[in-house]
């Protein structure tokens, strides 16, 4: 009897260890003007918000001086909080100097690996102002890819970019695929219908992700435009918006970090 109980206990420990290891926590975040304007204090606050996840996809990294340095500093701060992290930064997007930016990924290296440094999707640069950044990740032998994307503003036809992106991802060989970013369109809009018809689902729905400039009766949230879409090979365990503001009194300080909230997706691979 004791031997059987010990066997069950060890089996449960083994299952729990591997099930936790196989769960991946991803954050997608448009961190406004992510570059030299961010102080060390603000970078540390960002690190505290994301320290418990496995992968961070960042949009709006400054293309000029300061952007790459801010990503490196944030990674260094994360390394000091108990885990080892690595990062990649994209080249500047192939767009006008007024809208060009970089993307970044930062990830814990204990279980998540990469085999190359990824790249901007060149075949989309004529259809998308800030062509997305694609990077392949590996959990053991299992590969999954994340496309980091920041669309043009809501009044400059982001829908045409989303249609081009949908056509690309539905024809790509990367079957286990995640789209993370700022789409500047609510996921309930018709432009996402084809993506959903192809088997993609949204991490969050009907959840506002941008910050107002001022609080109105404790309401500081504006638009539901940031999201993470995942293919059917990805199993969603949890999806939510990380509200680091919480109170009206914190809004002004929070907006110095970003005018967007992070999107969180906890998932496993089918």
Q: Which structural class do you get from the secondary structure elements?
A: alpha+beta
* CATH superfamily heading: Endonuclease/exonuclease/phosphatase
Distance between the termini: 36 Å
Which stretches of 5+ consecutive residues score pLDDT under 50? 4-19
* Shape label: globular
Question: Overall mean pLDDT score?
Answer: 92
CATH topology: Deoxyribonuclease I, Chain A
Strand content: 25-35%
Question: Share of helix among residues?
Answer: 25-40%
State the major sheet. 7 strands, mixed
Q: What is the number of domains? A: 1
Summed up, the helix count is: 6
Classified by CATH, the class is Alpha Beta
- CATH architecture grouping: 4-Layer Sandwich
Evaluate the radius of gyration.
19 Å
Order of SSEs? HEHEHEEEEEEHEHEEEEEHE
Number of strands: 15
Short description:
The protein is of the alpha+beta class and 270 residues long.
């Amino acid at each position: 009897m004791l031997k059987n109980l010990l066997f069950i206990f060890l089996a449960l420990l083994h299952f729990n260890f591997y099930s936790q290891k196989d769960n991946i926590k991803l954050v997608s975040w448009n961190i406004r003007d992510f570059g030299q304007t961010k102080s060390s204090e603000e970078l540390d606050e960002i690190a505290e918000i994301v320290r418990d996840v496995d992968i961070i996809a960042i949009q709006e990294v400054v293309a000029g001086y300061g952007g790459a340095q801010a990503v490196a500093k944030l990674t260094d701060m994360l390394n000091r909080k108990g885990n080892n992290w690595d990062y990649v930064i994209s080249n500047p997007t192939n767009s006008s100097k007024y809208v060009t930016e970089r993307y970044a990924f930062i990830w814990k290296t204990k279980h998540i690996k990469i085999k190359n440094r990824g790249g901007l999707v060149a075949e989309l640069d004529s259809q998308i102002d800030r062509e997305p950044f694609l990077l392949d990740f590996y959990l053991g032998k299992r590969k999954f890819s994340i496309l980091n994307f920041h669309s043009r503003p809501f009044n400059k036809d982001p829908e045409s970019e989303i249609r081009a992106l949908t056509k690309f991802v539905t024809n790509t060989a990367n079957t286990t695929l995640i789209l993370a970013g700022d789409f500047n369109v609510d996921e309930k809009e018709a432009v996402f219908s084809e993506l959903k018809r192809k088997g993609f689902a949204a991490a969050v729905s009907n959840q506002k992700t941008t910050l107002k400039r001022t609080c109105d009766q404790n309401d500081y949230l504006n638009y539901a435009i940031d999201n993470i879409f995942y293919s059917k090979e990805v199993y969603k365990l949890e999806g939510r918006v990380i509200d680091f503001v919480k109170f009206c009194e914190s809004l002004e300080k929070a907006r110095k970090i970003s005018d967007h909230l992070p999107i969180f997706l906890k998932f496993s691979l089918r």
